[in-house]
Design goal:
single chain; 623 residues; alpha+beta; seven-stranded mixed β-sheet; six-stranded antiparallel β-sheet; 22 strands; globular; binds flavin-adenine dinucleotide; cytoplasm
Amino acid sequence: MYPSYDVIVIGGGHAGCEAAHAAATLGSSVLLVTMNMQTIAQMSCNPAMGGVAKGQIVREIDALGGMSGIVTDKSMIQFRMLNRSKGPAMWSPRAQSDRMVFAQEWRDTLEANLNVDIWQEMATEIVMEGDKITGVKTSLGVVFNTKSVVLTNGTFLNGLIHIGEKQFGGGRSGEHAAKGLTEQLVGLGFEAGRMKTGTPPRVDGRSLNWEKMQEQAGDENPEKFSYSDTTTTLTKQRSCFITYTSNAVHDVLKTGFDRSPMFNGRIQGLGPRYCPSIEDKINRFAERDRHQIFVEPEGWNTCEMYINGFSTSLPEDVQFKALQKIEGFENAKMFRPGYAIEYDFFPPTQLKSTLETKLVENLYFAGQINGTTGYEEAASQGLMAGINAHNKIKEKEAFILKRSEAYIGVLIDDLINKGTEEPYRMFTSRAEYRILLRQDNADIRLTKLGYDLGLAAEERFTAVEKKKKQIDHVVETLRETSIKVNTANPLLNEKGLQPLSQGIKATQFIKRPHVGMDLTMEANPSLKEAFDGFGEKALEEAEILLKYENYIEKEQKLAEKLTTLENYKIPEGFNFKSITALSSESREKMTKIAPLTLGQASRISGVTPADITILMVYLDKQK
Ligand code: FAD
């Protein structure tokens, strides 16, 4: 009676939306089963996308043809490029979004895709015939037939919410927990675990005294996330505000510690170490007498404020009293208390690099269900799972990104090889090639891959090719141009540049501190003519490539060296136990992870370089 689908995506969060959009755009028929259509792409926690390392991920999603960047551009109320004062590997775009518009834009995007059907209900069971997936069953007993399933349940699997001594089932405040799936998967042989995360209270902006806080405005010339011509460029922005806790705030919070589920053992799951609750911060950093708080608007037309830095699961009366001790919050009214949530996750070492499970063919996991935290981490996994679910049923090649190609590659490689004990979030320090994986060059790194897949549109590919040509031309021209610094030039004077008795290569000149492309073109006006009509971003890219040339080359060489190991294939189903020369720990771990290349094997914790040599010798003999 109901149509059959190529792919069913369970859960309409950040991972689910990207998965459904990707598989459908590639040509699969997709059903998105989600508990509540009103909460599609809901931002469960802070209304912001991007930030350090996460902004790079959003740019990568965009370059591949995913939608998180475009949706953010259409819903943002503030844009900042973080870490501008540091090197370009650290520049990270971050946008504050209108929570309601963000969700609406995602829903519009999915509704505009005729290959996506939506069904609002809880999915309770994956229907199987033997070891083959045939469908998905819902709480009403409706069965939809499908060839593959992508699970993106977020924090909903057996979710348990904690506020002080109160605890109740829920996947998010005001929403039901998802039941049935964990138990079925465990029955099938999957290992499950428990994690926790938390969110701060939301307050009424009309009750705050902004005069007592420090304003944090958006960038003067805001950029956007997407490389495509999305409609948005911000003409106005909303500011955030900064204030601090104090000993008086901490004293009030401490009065609730005996009722805190964090401290009395009621919460069992491990939380995100890098995003601790305020009670955790006070406890762990007892010597500090204040912690920074960012007051962030939740949208264009709402007075609701997100209190970033004040995540808590203390009793609501304690939260309220403590808030009122914060500078500028003396008359604060609270809209919703903060809370913590515990939920089930599945250790991601049970996945292949396509995010397909090793145990059940055509079953994929993406997002928080894999032990990650964050919208960006979830969205990128959803994108990869959606692509791979489609490719597999259409008998196309698996789509895997290398660690040297994308943060998304780092994320998935870390998850499947190392697993995670606590909610995993991306940091620049996790990427060994972070000078290559910049936010400014994600289009150059990935658009062709997205275009070849059929996900990134042709206009994007053409635009990137044009940009690449311009960059090459700028770099080549600068290599052949010399610069003479003439103090008569006021712009050069302003930068305190000494006159040069002899001309120097433009490529040397641009490497100097405080010198960029504008100054280089100013110093030799023939360049202005040569690059007339070139895109601003192409000029910026050429500047980065030349300024950081030595570092980039070094990383590229390293990446190329390691490619040898990455290209060294291990046959699927290889019997690692048969190599007795390997340590028993390595044999056990390799059997569990089942790496498909020597590179992947080398990143499994406990596997030594000696093990890799032994494996290589063994594989060579079999050739
Ligand atoms: P979600 O966004 O959770 O979406 C899951 C979707 O699946 C929902 O739409 C749900 O209705 C649906 N669903 C679930 N089960 C079923 C089912 N059986 N049938 C049908 N539909 C189903 N991230 C941070 O980076 N920093 C933070 O500080 C932070 N704090 C958080 C605090 C709280 C209280 C919560 C709830 C989340 C927090 N997060 C935080 C996490 C962030 O919200 C998630 O990482 C991100 O939303 C995960 O995306 P997802 O797509 O995996 O799942």
